[in-house]
Amino acid sequence: MLVCKNADNAIRWQAGERLNHLFEERCDQLHSSSNGAALAVITDDAALTFRDLDNRANQVARFLIGQGLTSGDRVGLMFDKTADAYVALLAVLKINAAYVPLDAGFPNERIGFIVKDADVKAIVSMSPFRSKLGEFSVRQILLDTAEPEINAKKSIRLADG
After folding, report:
1. How far apart are CA 72 and CA 136, in angstroms?
2. pTM of the model as a whole
3. pLDDT, tens digit, 9 for 90 and up, residues 24-66
4. I want to staple 61 with a disulfide (CB 3.0 to 4.6 A). Which of 5, 13, 34, 91 is the partner?
5. 75, 97 contact by CB (below 8 A)
6. How far apart are CA 35 and CA 38, in angstroms?
7. Which residues of the chain have a pLDDT value below 70?
8. What is the per-residue burial (b if ≥16 Cβ within 10 Å, else e) of 80-104?
């Protein structure tokens, strides 16, 4: 069992706790403090606060559930270095699925092996990777194409909604 401890040697991880729970806890701490606008992600295309990242990941998580993804599924993620990569990763964790990172720079044979070996149910990505994803016989979910539908989803946490 993995046990994380703080500097004071106190255990800070509990059984059943996942990364998204720790992230949400941190969001709540920052929101209740005077630092509610703390940045969580800074990329060339965007800067997201912890609250923005949490809200958007909640919307994407609801969208992924609507696409048939469920707890225990393995979901491939193929992104470049954008804020969307962090949103998708967190959204997959929020639905209790596992993410499988896929590097678009890998040869298609290698990606195909990873997808098959990990029993990936779907690949979440963006439309610039559509041609790369076309080679794999697995469901493709393109977040930028689905943006209007994602925007219509509630941004509150799944456990709260």
Report:
1. 21
2. 0.82
3. 766 666 666 656 577 877 888 888 888 888 899 999 999 999 9
4. 91
5. yes
6. 6
7. 1-23, 25-36, 160-161
8. bebbbbbbbbbbbbbbebebbebee
